[in-house]
Automatic annotation (TrEMBL):
Domain of life: Bacteria
Name of the protein in its database record: PAC domain-containing protein
Domain PAC intervals: 85-140
A Pfam family hit: PAS_4
Organism: Nemorincola caseinilytica
Amino acid sequence: MNNENHDIAPIAIDEQNLRALINNTDDPLWLVDVHHNVLECNEAFRTWVHHFTGRHISKGDNVLLNGEHKIYNDKFEMCYKLALSGSNFRTVEDMVINGVQHYTSVTFKPVIDSSGRVTAVSCFARDITEHRKHLFRIEQQNAALREIAFIESHRIRGPVATILGLEQLYNYTDLSDPMNKEIMDGIKKMGLDLDVIIRQVVKMSNEIGV
């Protein structure tokens, strides 16, 4: 009797530790059989599905909720089909939680037995919202930098060229030449235009943290 308890206890402890491990992560984990039934899942997955559908899902349930939630079904039916055909891949899904857009990277991996048959799909999801926001900020910065480069290479070039041209017309040998005043007025106007453009560049640079 004692030997039997000694043999069974480690298995029970291992199963308990495994369940504790998968439920102590904030990332959804789940395992689906060839009939789309949930073989195993953690609490994070149940919460994740509830955010998507408003439905509760547990071990033994159909992972596609028997097609009862069209948006959820459309998002994932093809994913499970591809994974069960042997494909290993990742998708990015979006959902709105409490009015805020969230993005999740979902990995699908077929589980293959010793004979080469796909017997299940192992799935893992991770919230990548902050990563996507970071990429979006970088894209915004790059767009602003391209605009700054355009300003510097086109809008600044015009006034500078005008100033250089006016300077060549300035009569240094006869400072009382009436044209000198017009030339200086033109240079002053171009200088003011340049000041406006430079202020715009500085403002844009400050906005993107350059």
